[in-house]
Amino acid sequence: VDYYDHSAQAEGWGTDFRRNMGTANDAYGKYATELFTEEAVQLVLEHDAQQPLFLYLAHLAVHSANSYAPLQAPADAVEKFSYINDLNRRTFAGMLSKLDDSVGEVVAALELRGMLENSIIVFTTDNGGPAAGFNLNHASNWPLRGVKDSLWEGGVRGAGFVWSPLIKQSPGTVSRTLMAIEDWLPSLYAAAGGDPDDLPEMDGVNMWPSMSTGAPSARIQLLHNIDPISHNAGLRVGDWKLVHNPAGQWVDWNGWYGPAGRNCTVPECQLTTLLQAAKSSLAGRAALRINSQAFAGILQTREHAMVNCTTAPDGPPSLCRKSSHPCLFHIPSDPCELQDLSAEHPALLQVMMHLLQLYNSTAVPAANRPSDAAANPKYWNYTWNNWMDYPEPVGLNTN
Protein backbone atom coordinates (compact mmCIF):
# COMPACT_ATOMS: atom_id res chain seq x y z
CA VAL A 1 0.00 0.00 0.00
CA ASP A 2 1.32 3.47 -0.94
CA TYR A 3 -0.41 6.32 0.94
CA TYR A 4 -1.53 8.46 2.06
CA ASP A 5 -2.54 -25.75 11.62
CA HIS A 6 -1.80 -25.94 15.34
CA SER A 7 -0.04 -29.22 15.79
CA ALA A 8 2.09 -30.51 18.65
CA GLN A 9 5.10 -29.23 16.72
CA ALA A 10 3.61 -25.75 16.63
CA GLU A 11 2.90 -25.88 20.35
CA GLY A 12 6.49 -26.89 21.04
CA TRP A 13 7.74 -24.02 18.88
CA GLY A 14 5.52 -21.71 20.92
CA THR A 15 7.25 -22.80 24.12
CA ASP A 16 10.64 -21.98 22.57
CA PHE A 17 9.24 -18.63 21.41
CA ARG A 18 8.22 -17.68 24.96
CA ARG A 19 11.55 -18.79 26.36
CA ASN A 20 13.47 -16.79 23.75
CA MET A 21 11.35 -13.73 24.46
CA GLY A 22 12.29 -13.97 28.12
CA THR A 23 15.98 -14.13 27.28
CA ALA A 24 15.79 -11.07 25.06
CA ASN A 25 13.92 -9.00 27.60
CA ASP A 26 16.30 -9.96 30.40
CA ALA A 27 19.15 -8.63 28.29
CA TYR A 28 17.51 -5.38 27.12
CA GLY A 29 14.64 -4.82 29.51
CA LYS A 30 14.94 -1.03 29.33
CA TYR A 31 14.76 -0.71 25.54
CA ALA A 32 11.33 0.72 24.67
CA THR A 33 10.83 -1.28 21.47
CA GLU A 34 11.24 -4.58 23.31
CA LEU A 35 9.07 -3.43 26.22
CA PHE A 36 6.27 -2.49 23.82
CA THR A 37 6.68 -5.81 22.02
CA GLU A 38 6.57 -7.79 25.25
CA GLU A 39 3.33 -6.09 26.27
CA ALA A 40 1.75 -6.62 22.82
CA VAL A 41 2.73 -10.30 22.78
CA GLN A 42 1.38 -10.79 26.29
CA LEU A 43 -1.95 -9.24 25.29
CA VAL A 44 -2.23 -11.66 22.37
CA LEU A 45 -1.23 -14.69 24.44
CA GLU A 46 -3.78 -13.86 27.16
CA HIS A 47 -6.61 -12.88 24.80
CA ASP A 48 -9.74 -15.04 24.38
CA ALA A 49 -9.21 -16.17 20.79
CA GLN A 50 -12.98 -16.48 20.30
CA GLN A 51 -13.41 -12.73 20.82
CA PRO A 52 -12.36 -9.89 18.49
CA LEU A 53 -9.11 -8.06 19.22
CA PHE A 54 -7.98 -4.63 18.08
CA LEU A 55 -4.30 -4.10 18.87
CA TYR A 56 -2.71 -0.74 18.10
CA LEU A 57 1.05 -0.97 18.53
CA ALA A 58 2.64 2.46 18.04
CA HIS A 59 6.38 2.04 18.44
CA LEU A 60 8.75 4.88 19.26
CA ALA A 61 11.36 3.35 16.95
CA VAL A 62 12.64 4.66 14.66
CA HIS A 63 11.85 8.09 16.08
CA SER A 64 14.56 10.38 17.42
CA ALA A 65 15.07 10.04 21.16
CA ASN A 66 16.90 12.47 23.44
CA SER A 67 18.78 15.39 21.91
CA TYR A 68 22.03 14.13 23.44
CA ALA A 69 21.49 10.60 22.07
CA PRO A 70 18.87 10.77 19.28
CA LEU A 71 19.48 7.27 17.86
CA GLN A 72 19.48 4.36 20.30
CA ALA A 73 19.53 0.59 19.86
CA PRO A 74 21.03 -2.42 21.68
CA ALA A 75 24.70 -2.91 20.87
CA ASP A 76 24.21 -6.35 19.29
CA ALA A 77 21.51 -4.97 16.96
CA VAL A 78 23.84 -2.21 15.81
CA GLU A 79 26.77 -4.61 15.38
CA LYS A 80 24.78 -6.66 12.86
CA PHE A 81 25.24 -3.77 10.45
CA SER A 82 28.97 -3.28 10.88
CA TYR A 83 29.31 -3.00 7.10
CA ILE A 84 27.54 0.39 7.24
CA ASN A 85 30.31 2.94 7.67
CA ASP A 86 28.25 5.86 8.93
CA LEU A 87 27.59 5.38 12.67
CA ASN A 88 24.26 7.18 12.59
CA ARG A 89 22.99 5.07 9.70
CA ARG A 90 24.34 1.95 11.41
CA THR A 91 22.47 2.77 14.62
CA PHE A 92 19.34 3.63 12.65
CA ALA A 93 19.54 0.20 10.97
CA GLY A 94 19.80 -1.41 14.41
CA MET A 95 16.68 0.43 15.53
CA LEU A 96 14.82 -0.69 12.43
CA SER A 97 15.92 -4.30 12.86
CA LYS A 98 14.42 -4.33 16.37
CA LEU A 99 11.20 -3.01 14.86
CA ASP A 100 11.32 -5.89 12.35
CA ASP A 101 11.84 -8.32 15.24
CA SER A 102 8.79 -6.88 16.98
CA VAL A 103 6.57 -7.50 13.97
CA GLY A 104 7.80 -11.09 13.83
CA GLU A 105 7.16 -11.74 17.51
CA VAL A 106 3.63 -10.36 17.39
CA VAL A 107 2.84 -12.38 14.24
CA ALA A 108 4.28 -15.50 15.89
CA ALA A 109 2.08 -14.95 18.94
CA LEU A 110 -1.01 -14.58 16.74
CA GLU A 111 -0.15 -17.85 14.98
CA LEU A 112 0.41 -19.63 18.28
CA ARG A 113 -3.05 -18.65 19.48
CA GLY A 114 -4.73 -19.70 16.23
CA MET A 115 -5.69 -16.11 15.43
CA LEU A 116 -3.44 -15.35 12.46
CA GLU A 117 -5.67 -16.89 9.79
CA ASN A 118 -8.45 -14.47 10.75
CA SER A 119 -6.26 -11.40 11.28
CA ILE A 120 -5.60 -8.22 9.33
CA ILE A 121 -2.13 -6.80 9.90
CA VAL A 122 -1.48 -3.19 8.92
CA PHE A 123 2.10 -1.92 9.04
CA THR A 124 2.38 1.73 8.17
CA THR A 125 4.29 4.90 8.90
CA ASP A 126 2.62 8.13 9.96
CA ASN A 127 4.80 10.36 7.76
CA GLY A 128 7.94 10.40 5.68
CA GLY A 129 11.32 9.99 7.31
CA PRO A 130 13.49 12.69 8.89
CA ALA A 131 16.39 12.20 6.51
CA ALA A 132 20.02 13.30 6.35
CA GLY A 133 20.11 14.56 9.93
CA PHE A 134 16.78 16.42 9.88
CA ASN A 135 15.33 16.26 13.41
CA LEU A 136 18.59 14.55 14.49
CA ASN A 137 17.65 11.46 12.49
CA HIS A 138 19.08 9.52 9.54
CA ALA A 139 16.21 8.05 7.58
CA SER A 140 16.02 8.18 3.78
CA ASN A 141 13.13 9.16 1.52
CA TRP A 142 15.14 8.80 -1.68
CA PRO A 143 14.22 9.53 -4.40
CA LEU A 144 11.17 11.35 -3.05
CA ARG A 145 11.57 15.03 -2.37
CA GLY A 146 11.58 16.57 1.10
CA VAL A 147 11.53 15.26 4.65
CA LYS A 148 9.18 14.74 7.56
CA ASP A 149 7.10 17.82 8.43
CA SER A 150 7.04 18.97 4.82
CA LEU A 151 4.32 18.63 2.19
CA TRP A 152 6.68 17.20 -0.42
CA GLU A 153 6.08 13.54 -1.23
CA GLY A 154 9.00 12.61 1.02
CA GLY A 155 7.01 14.03 3.93
CA VAL A 156 3.43 12.97 3.19
CA ARG A 157 3.75 9.69 1.32
CA GLY A 158 3.54 6.81 3.79
CA ALA A 159 4.92 3.42 2.84
CA GLY A 160 3.28 0.35 4.35
CA PHE A 161 1.51 -2.91 3.72
CA VAL A 162 -1.66 -4.79 4.60
CA TRP A 163 -1.42 -8.55 5.10
CA SER A 164 -4.35 -10.87 5.65
CA PRO A 165 -5.68 -14.22 4.44
CA LEU A 166 -8.95 -12.30 4.03
CA ILE A 167 -7.50 -10.29 1.12
CA LYS A 168 -8.69 -11.74 -2.17
CA GLN A 169 -5.95 -10.17 -4.31
CA SER A 170 -2.79 -12.13 -5.04
CA PRO A 171 0.06 -11.84 -2.50
CA GLY A 172 2.46 -9.07 -3.41
CA THR A 173 -0.10 -6.84 -5.11
CA VAL A 174 1.12 -3.23 -5.19
CA SER A 175 -1.51 -0.54 -4.79
CA ARG A 176 -0.93 3.08 -5.78
CA THR A 177 -4.47 4.22 -5.08
CA LEU A 178 -4.97 7.46 -3.20
CA MET A 179 -5.55 6.91 0.52
CA ALA A 180 -5.41 9.09 3.62
CA ILE A 181 -4.76 8.17 7.24
CA GLU A 182 -8.35 8.96 8.22
CA ASP A 183 -9.51 6.14 5.94
CA TRP A 184 -8.22 3.43 8.29
CA LEU A 185 -11.15 3.67 10.70
CA PRO A 186 -14.01 3.04 8.22
CA SER A 187 -11.87 0.58 6.24
CA LEU A 188 -10.99 -1.65 9.19
CA TYR A 189 -14.50 -1.29 10.58
CA ALA A 190 -15.87 -2.62 7.29
CA ALA A 191 -13.28 -5.40 7.15
CA ALA A 192 -14.37 -6.54 10.62
CA GLY A 193 -17.97 -6.84 9.41
CA GLY A 194 -19.35 -3.46 10.34
CA ASP A 195 -21.30 -1.07 8.14
CA PRO A 196 -19.36 2.19 7.72
CA ASP A 197 -22.69 3.98 7.24
CA ASP A 198 -23.36 3.34 10.93
CA LEU A 199 -20.35 5.44 11.91
CA PRO A 200 -20.64 9.16 12.73
CA GLU A 201 -19.94 11.58 9.92
CA MET A 202 -16.19 11.68 9.26
CA ASP A 203 -13.60 12.54 6.65
CA GLY A 204 -12.47 8.94 6.13
CA VAL A 205 -13.83 6.65 3.41
CA ASN A 206 -14.02 2.85 3.24
CA MET A 207 -11.01 1.58 1.32
CA TRP A 208 -11.42 -2.10 2.24
CA PRO A 209 -12.97 -3.09 -1.14
CA SER A 210 -9.98 -1.50 -2.88
CA MET A 211 -7.50 -3.26 -0.59
CA SER A 212 -9.16 -6.65 -0.56
CA THR A 213 -10.44 -7.02 -4.12
CA GLY A 214 -8.74 -4.28 -6.13
CA ALA A 215 -11.96 -2.29 -6.56
CA PRO A 216 -11.61 1.35 -7.62
CA SER A 217 -10.58 3.69 -4.83
CA ALA A 218 -13.36 5.49 -3.01
CA ARG A 219 -11.05 8.45 -2.44
CA ILE A 220 -10.56 10.94 -5.25
CA GLN A 221 -9.08 13.90 -3.36
CA LEU A 222 -7.45 14.74 -0.05
CA LEU A 223 -6.22 17.77 1.81
CA HIS A 224 -2.61 17.35 2.86
CA ASN A 225 -2.58 20.39 5.11
CA ILE A 226 -3.35 24.07 5.59
CA ASP A 227 -1.07 25.49 8.25
CA PRO A 228 -1.60 29.15 9.23
CA ILE A 229 1.56 29.08 11.37
CA SER A 230 4.02 27.60 8.87
CA HIS A 231 2.05 29.19 6.00
CA ASN A 232 2.02 26.06 3.87
CA ALA A 233 -0.74 24.17 2.10
CA GLY A 234 -1.12 21.05 -0.03
CA LEU A 235 -3.93 19.32 -1.87
CA ARG A 236 -4.37 16.21 -4.03
CA VAL A 237 -7.11 15.74 -6.62
CA GLY A 238 -6.71 12.48 -8.47
CA ASP A 239 -3.25 12.41 -10.04
CA TRP A 240 -2.59 16.11 -9.43
CA LYS A 241 -0.99 17.79 -6.44
CA LEU A 242 -0.98 21.47 -5.54
CA VAL A 243 1.54 22.75 -2.99
CA HIS A 244 2.44 26.13 -1.52
CA ASN A 245 5.55 26.60 0.63
CA PRO A 246 5.74 22.80 1.12
CA ALA A 247 8.80 22.89 3.40
CA GLY A 248 7.10 25.40 5.70
CA GLN A 249 9.50 26.83 8.25
CA TRP A 250 12.22 24.38 7.18
CA VAL A 251 13.41 26.53 4.30
CA ASP A 252 16.53 24.45 3.66
CA TRP A 253 14.76 21.10 3.21
CA ASN A 254 13.33 21.34 -0.30
CA GLY A 255 15.71 18.85 -1.93
CA TRP A 256 16.19 15.11 -2.22
CA TYR A 257 17.92 13.33 0.63
CA GLY A 258 19.47 9.89 0.74
CA PRO A 259 21.33 7.72 0.85
CA ALA A 260 19.64 6.04 -2.06
CA GLY A 261 20.34 2.52 -0.76
CA ARG A 262 20.85 1.24 -4.29
CA ASN A 263 24.63 1.15 -4.41
CA CYS A 264 25.44 -1.25 -1.57
CA THR A 265 27.75 -4.05 -2.76
CA VAL A 266 28.57 -6.01 0.41
CA PRO A 267 27.20 -9.60 0.64
CA GLU A 268 24.66 -8.58 3.30
CA CYS A 269 22.98 -6.28 0.77
CA GLN A 270 22.51 -8.88 -1.94
CA LEU A 271 18.89 -9.41 -2.89
CA THR A 272 19.05 -13.20 -2.48
CA THR A 273 20.43 -12.77 1.04
CA LEU A 274 17.77 -10.26 1.99
CA LEU A 275 14.99 -12.40 0.54
CA GLN A 276 16.18 -15.47 2.43
CA ALA A 277 16.31 -13.46 5.65
CA ALA A 278 12.70 -12.37 5.11
CA LYS A 279 11.56 -15.94 4.45
CA SER A 280 13.32 -17.29 7.52
CA SER A 281 12.10 -14.56 9.87
CA LEU A 282 9.33 -15.27 12.39
CA ALA A 283 6.77 -13.40 10.32
CA GLY A 284 8.01 -14.90 7.06
CA ARG A 285 7.79 -18.47 8.35
CA ALA A 286 4.29 -17.85 9.69
CA ALA A 287 3.15 -16.41 6.35
CA LEU A 288 4.59 -19.39 4.47
CA ARG A 289 2.85 -21.85 6.78
CA ILE A 290 -0.48 -20.25 5.90
CA ASN A 291 0.30 -19.81 2.20
CA SER A 292 3.25 -21.58 0.64
CA GLN A 293 3.13 -19.05 -2.22
CA ALA A 294 3.34 -16.03 0.06
CA PHE A 295 6.65 -14.96 -1.47
CA ALA A 296 5.83 -15.85 -5.06
CA GLY A 297 6.59 -12.99 -7.42
CA ILE A 298 8.38 -11.01 -4.69
CA LEU A 299 10.98 -9.71 -7.15
CA GLN A 300 8.28 -8.40 -9.46
CA THR A 301 6.53 -6.86 -6.48
CA ARG A 302 9.73 -5.10 -5.47
CA GLU A 303 10.22 -3.77 -8.98
CA HIS A 304 6.62 -2.59 -9.20
CA ALA A 305 6.89 -0.80 -5.83
CA MET A 306 10.09 1.01 -6.81
CA VAL A 307 9.89 4.78 -7.21
CA ASN A 308 12.00 6.09 -10.08
CA CYS A 309 12.59 9.64 -11.28
CA THR A 310 12.62 10.62 -14.93
CA THR A 311 15.91 12.43 -14.33
CA ALA A 312 18.36 12.43 -11.45
CA PRO A 313 17.47 15.22 -8.99
CA ASP A 314 20.43 17.54 -8.55
CA GLY A 315 18.83 20.66 -7.11
CA PRO A 316 15.40 22.18 -6.41
CA PRO A 317 14.07 23.67 -9.68
CA SER A 318 11.30 25.43 -7.78
CA LEU A 319 10.62 26.09 -4.10
CA CYS A 320 6.90 26.80 -4.70
CA ARG A 321 6.70 29.55 -2.07
CA LYS A 322 4.23 31.97 -3.68
CA SER A 323 0.76 31.55 -2.18
CA SER A 324 -0.71 33.44 -5.13
CA HIS A 325 0.84 30.98 -7.56
CA PRO A 326 1.57 27.57 -6.00
CA CYS A 327 3.16 24.67 -7.84
CA LEU A 328 1.30 21.91 -9.63
CA PHE A 329 2.72 18.39 -10.06
CA HIS A 330 1.45 15.29 -11.86
CA ILE A 331 2.45 12.68 -9.30
CA PRO A 332 2.16 9.40 -11.28
CA SER A 333 4.54 10.62 -13.99
CA ASP A 334 6.61 12.82 -11.67
CA PRO A 335 6.65 11.28 -8.17
CA CYS A 336 9.88 13.12 -7.36
CA GLU A 337 8.25 16.53 -8.00
CA LEU A 338 10.80 17.78 -10.48
CA GLN A 339 8.57 19.67 -12.91
CA ASP A 340 6.08 22.37 -11.93
CA LEU A 341 3.25 22.24 -14.48
CA SER A 342 1.20 25.16 -13.20
CA ALA A 343 1.99 27.31 -16.27
CA GLU A 344 0.90 24.53 -18.62
CA HIS A 345 -2.43 23.93 -16.83
CA PRO A 346 -3.73 27.32 -15.61
CA ALA A 347 -7.39 26.24 -15.58
CA LEU A 348 -6.67 23.18 -13.46
CA LEU A 349 -4.53 25.32 -11.16
CA GLN A 350 -7.41 27.71 -10.58
CA VAL A 351 -9.85 24.87 -9.87
CA MET A 352 -7.53 23.36 -7.28
CA MET A 353 -6.81 26.75 -5.68
CA HIS A 354 -10.56 27.31 -5.38
CA LEU A 355 -10.97 23.87 -3.77
CA LEU A 356 -8.19 24.73 -1.32
CA GLN A 357 -10.08 27.90 -0.41
CA LEU A 358 -13.25 25.86 0.19
CA TYR A 359 -11.34 23.60 2.56
CA ASN A 360 -9.88 26.61 4.33
CA SER A 361 -13.34 28.13 4.81
CA THR A 362 -14.16 25.28 7.19
CA ALA A 363 -10.98 25.67 9.29
CA VAL A 364 -11.09 26.49 12.98
CA PRO A 365 -8.40 28.53 14.78
CA ALA A 366 -5.21 26.70 15.70
CA ALA A 367 -5.40 25.33 19.25
CA ASN A 368 -1.66 25.37 19.91
CA ARG A 369 -0.82 26.29 23.48
CA PRO A 370 2.45 27.76 24.78
CA SER A 371 5.07 25.32 26.00
CA ASP A 372 5.02 24.60 29.74
CA ALA A 373 8.51 24.54 31.21
CA ALA A 374 7.26 22.26 33.99
CA ALA A 375 6.65 19.53 31.42
CA ASN A 376 10.36 19.16 30.63
CA PRO A 377 11.29 15.51 31.27
CA LYS A 378 14.44 16.60 33.10
CA TYR A 379 12.23 17.48 36.07
CA TRP A 380 10.57 14.05 36.06
CA ASN A 381 13.46 11.59 35.95
CA TYR A 382 13.54 12.01 32.15
CA THR A 383 10.10 10.55 31.58
CA TRP A 384 6.96 12.10 30.12
CA ASN A 385 4.09 12.22 32.61
CA ASN A 386 0.93 14.09 33.55
CA TRP A 387 2.95 16.86 35.22
CA MET A 388 -0.03 19.10 35.96
CA ASP A 389 -1.30 16.57 38.50
CA TYR A 390 1.76 17.18 40.67
CA PRO A 391 3.26 20.14 42.57
CA GLU A 392 5.58 22.41 40.61
CA PRO A 393 8.97 20.69 40.25
CA VAL A 394 11.87 21.85 42.39
CA GLY A 395 14.30 24.07 40.52
CA LEU A 396 11.84 25.01 37.77
CA ASN A 397 13.33 27.59 35.42
CA THR A 398 10.71 29.41 33.36
CA ASN A 399 13.12 31.77 31.63
Automatic annotation (TrEMBL):
<comment type="similarity">
    <text>Belongs to the sulfatase family.</text>
</comment>
<protein>
    <submittedName>
        <fullName>Arylsulfatase B-like</fullName>
    </submittedName>
</protein>
<dbReference type="InterPro" id="IPR047115">
    <property type="entry name" value="ARSB"/>
</dbReference>
<dbReference type="Pfam" id="PF00884">
    <property type="entry name" value="Sulfatase"/>
</dbReference>
<keyword id="KW-0325">Glycoprotein</keyword>
<dbReference type="InterPro" id="IPR017850">
    <property type="entry name" value="Alkaline_phosphatase_core_sf"/>
</dbReference>
<keyword id="KW-0479">Metal-binding</keyword>
<dbReference type="InterPro" id="IPR000917">
    <property type="entry name" value="Sulfatase_N"/>
</dbReference>
<keyword id="KW-0106">Calcium</keyword>
<dbReference type="GO" id="GO:0046872">
    <property type="term" value="F:metal ion binding"/>
</dbReference>
<dbReference type="GO" id="GO:0008484">
    <property type="term" value="F:sulfuric ester hydrolase activity"/>
</dbReference>
<feature type="domain" description="Sulfatase N-terminal">
    <location>
        <begin position="22"/>
        <end position="193"/>
    </location>
</feature>
